[in-house]
Amino acid sequence: MRSVDINCDMGESFGRWPMGNDAALMQYISSANIACGFHAGDPQIMRNTVRLALKYHVAIGAHPGFHDLQGFGRREIHMAPEEVFSLVLYQIGALEAIARAEGGVLHHVKPHGALYNMAAKDRRLADAIARAVQQAGTGLILYGLSGSALIDAAKAIGLRTASEVFADRSYQDDGSLTPRSQAGALIEDAVAAARQALQMVEQQQVLSLQGNPVALVAETLCLHGDGAHALEFARAIHQTFVDRGIEIKAP
Predict the structure, then answer these.
(1) How far apart are CA 110 and CA 116, in angstroms?
(2) CB-based burial of residue 158 (10 Å sphere; 0-12 exposed, 13-18 middle, 19+ buried)?
(3) N or C: which end of the chain has fewer CB within 10 A?
(4) Burial grade of 58 (CB within 10 A; 0-12, 13-18, 19 or more)
(5) 74 by DSSP, 3-state: which?
(6) 87-102 pLDDT, tens per residue?
């Protein structure tokens, strides 16, 4: 049976619970990427989100980003690789301790926002993130954009990886995500998102914004929990996979 992971960015709020659709989304996903306090989140939100993931048997992942609360971690910050190493290691450690205290284990790490996008192209940053994940614990899986420098860096040092694709974002011909500043970057229709998700999983390719087929590896599918249509998308994609006999499970 074909299988795929559905992951979602969660815990991206401050001082209030629950955050948006987090509780409702948990039943449709298999991995949760939990903000670690730098681009969003705080210690109590982190604990609550870990507890929610444990309740629904969802894999717990750290979602480290730049220290950029005002920009939600989506603004590029240029740092030396060793600074990025420390930034990522610090955030992984915080969530790992909370997960352990709540009776869970940390399963994976997925960088957030600008850090993710920069590391997808910059091998020096990718190497720094991969080293941080490797040294943070045993058996952690690094989630990264399919075909990116981040996946290459992780594989080069023997890390387990999960190549990530996006149901709610459009792609460019080179396999990169269309920048959010450009028209057509976000997919707003649940039917279109489910159709793209199914194509990526079954055919291991996607049509770019320019209309060309782009090969990719779809091992984990991302849904943005803060999206306006997140819950609608999650239901549509989950049901599409169930109807096609595709098992939803964490790597």
Answers:
(1) 8
(2) exposed
(3) N
(4) buried
(5) coil
(6) 999 999 999 999 999 9
The CA distance from 58 to 52, in Å, is 8
Burial grade of 72 (CB within 10 A; 0-12, 13-18, 19 or more): middle
For the chain, strand residue ranges (E) read 3-10, 31-35, 59-63, 106-109, 141-145, 160-166, 205-207, 213-215, 220-224, 247-248
Q: Amino acid letter at 123?
A: R
Residue 119 has, within 13 A of its CA and on its CB side, a CA count of 34
Cβ atoms within 10 Å, residue 5: 23
**Extents of the domains making up the chain:** 3-248
- Is residue 104 within 8 A of residue 95, CB to CB? The reply is no
Residues 159-183 have a mean pLDDT of: 93
Q: Tell me: the pLDDT tens digits for 186-224?
A: 999 999 999 999 999 999 999 999 999 999 999 999 988
Query: Could you tell me which CATH number the domain at 3-248 has?
Result: 3.20.20.370
Q: What is the pTM of this model?
A: 0.94
Q: Two tokens at 187?
A: 């997919």
CA-closest candidate to residue 87, choices 116, 129, 50, 124: 129
CB atoms inside a 10 Å sphere around CB 245: 9
